[in-house]
Write a structure and sequence with these properties.
168 residues; alpha+beta; Peptide Deformylase; five-stranded antiparallel sheet; 5 strands; 27% helix; globular; binds nickel (II) ion
Length: 168
Amino acid sequence: MSIQKIYQYPETVLRKETQKIDTFDSSLAALVEDMAETMYDAPGIGLAAPQIGRSLKLIVVDMSEDKQGEKKYIPMINPEIIAHEGTQIDEEGCLSVPELTANVKRHLTITVAYQDLQGQAHEISTQDRFAVVLQHEIDHLNGILFIDHLSPLKRGLYKKKVKKWLEK
Ligand code: NI
């Protein structure tokens, strides 16, 4: 297992199309372990493969009930939102978008179809905060960052800030 580099906006790998996974082998399991380790090291509550430079339809999300206790996470392979209802607004941040948190409008409840490490198909229906995390991570698989959901003004301010850092 090893901690991977997390790519940050505006690196282009975050915008690239991702490939569907159809091989469920030990290298996929190793990649999932690396992603979980990278997520907890950051620390974060979710991580998508493009964030470590891998253009694959794969996310890991934290499921720990107690932040001090044992770390539990779930890998979701080829996840897809197949139903949604309602709206909610909650604050988001992203390991690939440093120094910014902002309110984002999302679906309140969602149903996600995904495969596990063995390739078995599952569906999960969830709401509130966990639904936000899943929508945020699945967005990454489509090259979408949470700043894309902000007003042009807010997004513009952030882009300007990043440009200044990069000039330093
Ligand atoms: Ni993110």
